[in-house]
Amino acid sequence: MNKYKRIALHTSVFMGLLVFLWLLLALAAAIPNTALQTNMEQSALSYKEKATYSYENGDKWNGIGDNYADAVLLNVSWNMGRGNPFLSSLDTWYYNGEALGENVGLYLTVIDETIPLNTDYTRYWHGSAMFVRLLHLITDVDGIKWIGFLAVLLCALITIGILIRHGHICLAAALALSMLSVQIWNIRLSLEYQPTFLLCFLFSCLYLWSERNHETYLTYLSIAGGVLTAFFDFLTTETLVLLLPLILVVAVRAAENRLGSFRENIRLIASCGLCWLLAYGGAFIMKWTAASLAAGENKFLIALSSVEERIGGGLLGRGPENPLLRIPAAILANLTVLFGGDKRLDLVRVVLGLLFTVLICGSLLYLFHRGNCDKTALKLLALLGSVVFLRYMVLNNHSYLHEFFTYRALFAPIMALLSGMILSMELPVRKKKGIKKQ
Q: What are phi and psi of 64, to 5 degrees?
């Protein structure tokens, strides 16, 4: 297949999937709000008295529920039901409650259709609104959270089952341990925590099938992953959708002695990464373009202003304003939450946590080190795992202020670390003593 045909096919996957998703979103927006009224009112009431960010596990930051994000999602979802669904699903607004806050704003919007919408939120696709509206026909927000959480667990179990079926019990155990390390059960606390985990396990299954049967499909899957991540996620743990599947592909191939050279693998990873990034960024550009056309005004200025803030914005007095300090602080803040911190940044906790991790991993490698381990696999896993830290550095403002959910992206480097250890170790084999003949 020549280069131009491949580009055309990849572009077709991008455009076709994005248009299909938008049509589904518009179809969900066409559901009359009256059909959702009872359950949506129940959902709105559940947030009316809640704090913007609620602590669900003592003072630990890994147990914070993002009620603000969920209230905004429900608000946007509800208001998609106003007017033409093709336009309202693109030009997305909500009522922020003004001095009363977003939680109360949601309640007022649901009970009073005359409430004016005063906050532009066109920078995201808000694809989750599709399921929010559909599932509100049968349940309220608490039920939707549990449905999403159980769906994530089901996809995770399928991924683990695939690994076990191919004889990779240790990798399956590493995946389960990685999930536990980021407190996977806490994604049930917020609707907005769930999409990337659901997608990363779905694509892990697809990547593992594709790498055995049709390797050329991997770049098309990467295009699809980028589109779906941009469509459903609101900048939480977006890198997982690409990194976890690639980590599993590298680990499985290395375990089966069919990984190949570093050069050919880095070319494959770079191709998948480029496809994912172009699709992810392209989906946002398409949203801003479509929203501008639907609204008759330039939506790029608002969106790019938000991007600028996420990269180099101030920390609102909550941390260092100097970029040279803010960038490492973003990484340390996420590690603080990973190690069970009860404040934004705890350097002592991070040092002790890393020291303990190094001691455990170092001891296991010392005791069970494999002499002929695959150095190519270790390099690739280290490269893939480091992407998350690069993300924290680039989006340092966002990563520092929202570390109570961005820390879960560490799922990928933890899985990369455990996979590398599995590939570098082997259990000692006891030699059988021969029986001397009399």
A: -85, 130
Measured in whole angstroms, the distance separating CA 338 from the mean position of its chain's CA atoms is 16
Which of 249, 239, 244, 152 lies closest to 194, judged by CA? 152
- On the 0-12 / 13-18 / 19+ scale of CB atoms within 10 A, 42 is middle
Whether the per-residue pLDDT at 433 is higher than 80: the answer is no
Q: What are phi and psi of 65, to 5 degrees?
A: -95, 130
**Separation of alpha carbons 348 and 46, rounded Å:** 38
DSSP state of 346: -
Q: What element of type H or E holds 143?
A: helix 141-165
- Residue closest to 106 by CA, chosen among 44, 58, 175, 176: 44
Q: Quick: pLDDT tens for 117-172.
A: 999 999 999 999 999 999 999 999 999 999 999 999 999 999 999 999 999 999 99
- Long-range contact list for 137-143, CB < 8 A, 24+ apart? 137/31, 137/35, 137/36, 137/39, 138/39, 139/39, 140/39, 140/40, 140/42, 140/43, 140/46, 141/42, 141/43, 141/46, 141/47, 141/70, 141/74, 141/191, 142/43, 142/46
Q: Categorize the per-residue pLDDT at 421 as very low, low, confident or very high, splitting at 50, 70 and 90.
A: very high
Using DSSP's 3-state secondary structure scheme, residue 168 falls into: coil
For residue 266, give the 3-state DSSP assignment.
helix
Instruction: Please name every residue paired with 119 in a beta bridge, in sequence order, or none if there are none.
Output: 94
| Token code pair at residue 80 | 């998609």
* Coarse DSSP helix, strand, coil percentages of the chain, rounded to the nearest 5 percent: 70, 5, 25
Q: Roughly what angle, to the nearest 10 degrees, separates helices 169-181 and 240-255? A: 150
Taking the C-alpha atoms of residue 46 and residue 107, their distance in angstroms, rounded to an integer, is 9
pLDDT number for residue 435: 47
Task: Encode burial over 74-109: b for 16+ CB neighbours within 10 A, e otherwise.
Answer: bbbbbbbbeeebbbbbbbbbbbbbeeebbbbbbbbb
Quote the Cα angle for 320-325-329, to 5°. 80
Residue 233 confidence (pLDDT): 97
Confidence (pLDDT) at 438: 36
Query: HSE-up of 125 (CA within 13 Å, CB side)?
Result: 29
Own/partner contacts of 371-377, CB < 8 Å, gap of 24 or more, are 373/423, 373/424, 374/254, 374/257, 374/259, 374/423, 376/254, 376/259, 376/260, 376/261, 376/262, 376/265, 377/250, 377/251, 377/253, 377/254, 377/259, 377/420, 377/423
Share of the chain above pLDDT 70, in %: 98
**What are the tens digits of pLDDT across the range 257-304?**
999 999 999 999 999 999 999 999 999 999 999 999 999 999 998 898
Of 198, 127, 104, the C-alpha closest to 159 is: 198
